[in-house]
Amino acid sequence: MKRDLLLFIGFSLLVLLAPQLFSGGYLMNVLVFVGINTMLSIALNLLLGYAGQISLGHAGFFGLGAYLSGILTTTYALDPWFAMPLAAAVVGGMAFLIGFPILKLKGHYLAMATLGLGIIIYIVFNETVELTGGPSGLSGIPNLKIAGITFDSDVKNYYLIWTATLLVMIFSLNLAGSRVGRALRAVHDSEVAARVLGVNSRILKVQIFALSAVISSLAGSLYAHTMTFISPASFGFNFSIELLTMVVIGGLGSIYGSFLGAALLTLLPEFLRGANDYDIIIYGGLLMVMVMYMPGGLVRGIPSLYRYLVKSKKGEPGHA
Amino acid sequence: MLEVSGITQIFGGVTALDSVSFSIRKGDITGVIGPNGAGKTTLFNIITGIYTQSAGTVTLEGKDVTGLPPEKLARRAMVRTFQNIELFGAMTVLENVMVGMHTKSTSGLLACALKMPWSITEEHRICAGALKWLDFTGILDLADHTAGSLPFGKGRLLEIARALAVGPRIILMDEPAAGLNSQETLGLASLIKRIRDLGITVVLVEHDMELVMDICDRIVVLNLGKKLAEGTPREIQESPEVIAAYLGDDD
Amino acid sequence: MQFDQLLQYTLSGLSTGAIYALIGIGFSIIYNATGIINFAQGEFVMLGGLLTLSSLELLKLPLWAAIPCSVAFSTVIGILFERLAIRPLKQPTPINLVIITIGGSILIRGLAMLVWGKDTHAIPPFSGDTPIPVGGATILPQHLWILAITLIIIIINKIYFYHTISGKAMRACAYNRRAAGLVGIDVRRMVLFSFIISSAMGAVAGIIVAPLTMTAYDVGVMLGLKGFCAAIIGGMSSGISTVIGGLILGVLESLGAGLISSGYKDAIAFIILLLILFIRPQGLFGKADSERV
């Protein structure tokens, strides 16, 4: 309990001090993306790592948040602070309704259905040109403002995004350690036993699916208001896969793991500038290698690798 | 307490259970026995809402609960254990039992995530309750172990502790002694009696005849999907039909 | 006029549908033998087309030789995929299998991008491109090739599954893997066989469709997903139901694109996919099967 708190405080301090360590606009911009991707991987991890339900359509919820926020603030001139929760509520409501039929499916079928859902959403972004601007995107989305400060520079955006990310993290950590989090993990391990103990697994899964969509939508809104320009290309099938890769690489069922995965996958392409087009080879390879050799992800794999090296005795591999 | 009447189950043309009826008295330990393939586990799965039967009704404390899913039955104070223990392997022993307190706690998703004061109080209550049941089943010292790493016998005790945490008025156990050594079986017998002494009605499917005859107040015998006999252990031991059904069976 | 238009859409829909059917059967064969939905299935379709291109242009092979060459090479990649990714998996849970086949699919796609670049490539039609009039509509010779080759493949498939020892063993595996193992069928070998057959079928689909639609490193995603959709409509059967599923999908898509909006063409397949999964997860023609949901 105390260790968890210390870890979180340490992590927050690191986040707070990072701009001092890495001054320079460009890297700050990348770190903004790390924050957004961390929120998204946490959202997906709550569903996949805790409840054991896969989604290959999360880029769709992310995009819906971004577009709803973008459209409400440009076409309808709503205040961003009002548009964001409205978008989140709409996306959450949608996810809740679709959650009932979709979460009846298991494993591969759920994967395919969520994938289909994500692609339908993506097609809608492209085709409803009057609303979304179509493939050429939506621009002129206003920045967020609070108490006279406009979040329009990389450093300001960094603090905005990371405040939200830390809130999402503590929210999820609390949830994971609570009765709801235990029930989720129980459903993951043995659904029938959880039901026998009175856990309504169906409602629980739908709730967590909706929560996951709400967090993704908020991340999408924040993305729209910091970038001020969005286009469908950011919310396609490939991005859903990228999110999945982050969660798996970081560690299923670990909130800090989601940060590790998001950070690694966001920073990696920056270091591989020249090979930018070929980063999908790396994603593919990483996914396969992780599932085969480090199914617990970095967050469990690194400590066990460390123990292995230190004791030069076979460490116990992490469990997913 | 629990009444089943006319339970029939047909799996793709094969009749697994044929109009089975009996009732279980409050406060009794009732054994359901029968040779392999008699339909005992199928019957359990129907009573506890895991299968839906082809015909027949289940009545719990005077109310029709036919076809209710397991999570609803848990809220009506009926709980069960499994033949191949179904633990939450990645969670600790304590957390397993804490899941058992699920129906006795109410904090919703948001209250939990925002750590509202009442959810923290509730969390303490859940933890204390879970520890109490670990103590009752004698595995308190294992509270922080991972459930998946427990030896089979301890896992069985954990499953029972977890079921008791639900606060059942009736508990159904599917072959609780399977896979236990004789020492552990003795411990189990006394645990089951202590559970009965808490006022909880116990129903068990069991192959270990010595255990059944020792602890059961009443016994229901199934054979080939039909009820063969019902009575006290003494009556069952003397019943010619039961003896005939068991002859030649290697149980 | 209206009728001619409908006929035209239906005819071109049928040939796209035949492609979806071939890909869908590939999905079903692996699913039935292993319980895996192979997310990399579409990549073999892509490989078939692009490898044919290379055989024609680099090896200067004639078309009749380039096709088997490309199918053989795709099959080798299918074998490698099974050996290197599926078989060594220590915890083959459904989620791990989804992730590993997705990983494989991305890797194959990325490597294809490395080899063939990002451009779209054209493959010449098998026998010219003079349209043949049918009623008031026209049909391309390639459409006929597609329908004929699909028909032949389905017949070969039928013969294999019902009249050869290994085909019957595969069916036994699909019915009950454990029991098949107990009666002495080498289940792991059947898994390998299923990957061989479906990668070969995927490659054929990719080759026959390439002259119509052009091909590129990323065509596998959509074609694969639509093939899966055909298989779902057909209830994951490796026979006629999936063929009908593919044809229905192809025709609906073609009609939808022609009569409603071409932009939403791809959405049609996924809406059908979701509807089928929600309402009749056992497929349009199948009986209820609780395993799938």
Question: Can you lay out the helices and strands and say which pair or pack?
Answer:
The complex is a heterotrimer of chains A (320), B (251) and C (293).
Chain A: H1 2-21, H2 25-50, H3 58-74, H4 80-102, H5 107-127, H6 129-132, E1 138-139, E2 145-146, E3 149-150, H7 154-176, H8 179-189, H9 191-196, H10 201-227, E4 229-230, H11 237-250, H12 255-271, H13 279-293, H14 298-311
Antiparallel strand pairs in A: 1-4, 2-3
Helix pairs in contact in A: 1-7, 2-7, 2-10, 2-11, 2-12, 3-4, 3-5, 3-10, 4-10, 7-10, 11-12, 11-13
Chain B: E1 2-11, E2 14-24, E3 29-33, H1 40-47, E4 55-60, E5 63-64, H2 70-75, E6 78-81, H3 93-100, H4 109-113, H5 117-137, H6 152-165, E7 170-174, H7 182-197, E8 201-205, H8 209-215, E9 218-223, E10 226-231, H9 233-238, H10 240-246
Parallel strand pairs in B: 3-8, 3-9, 6-7, 7-8
Antiparallel strand pairs in B: 1-2, 1-4, 4-5, 9-10
Chain C: H1 2-34, H2 41-57, H3 63-86, H4 94-116, E1 132-134, E2 137-139, H5 141-163, H6 165-175, H7 177-182, H8 187-213, H9 219-233, H10 240-259, H11 265-279
CATH architecture of chain A: Orthogonal Bundle
- How many helices of chain A? The count is 14
Q: How many strand units of chain B? A: 10
Q: For the largest beta sheet of chain A, what order do the strands appear in spatially?
A: 1-4
- Which class of chain A in CATH terms? Mainly Alpha
Number of helices of chain B: 10
State the end-to-end distance of chain A.
22 Å
User: From the structure provided, what is the oligomeric state, counting identical versus distinct chains?
Assistant: heterotrimer
Spans of chain A with pLDDT under 50 lasting ≥5 residues? 313-320
- Rg from Cα of chain A: 19 Å
What would you report as the Rg of chain B, rounded to the nearest angstrom?
Answer: 19 Å
> End-to-end span of chain B in angstroms?
30 Å
The fold-level CATH name of the largest domain in chain B is Rossmann fold
Describe this protein's structure.
The complex is a heterotrimer of chains A (320), B (251) and C (293). With 320 residues, chain A is mainly alpha-helical. Chain A has 14 helices and 4 strands. In chain A, helix 2 packs parallel to helix 7 and helix 2 packs antiparallel against helix 10. Chain B has 251 residues and is an alpha/beta fold. Chain B has 2 domains: 148 residues, P-loop containing nucleotide triphosphate hydrolases (Rossmann fold); 82 residues, P-loop containing nucleotide triphosphate hydrolases (Rossmann fold), CATH 3.40.50. In chain B, strands 6-7-8-3-9-10 form a 6-stranded mixed sheet, sandwiched between helices. In chain B, helix 3 crosses helix 5. The two termini of chain B are 30 Å apart. Chain C is 73% helix and 2% strand. Chain C is built from 11 helices and 2 strands. In chain C, strands 1-2 form a two-stranded antiparallel sheet. In chain C, a hairpin with a 2-residue loop joins strand 1 and strand 2. The chains are: A mainly alpha (320), B alpha/beta (251), C mainly alpha (293). Chains A and B meet through helix 7, helix 8, helix 9 and helix 10 of A and helix 2, helix 3, helix 4, helix 5 and helix 6 of B.
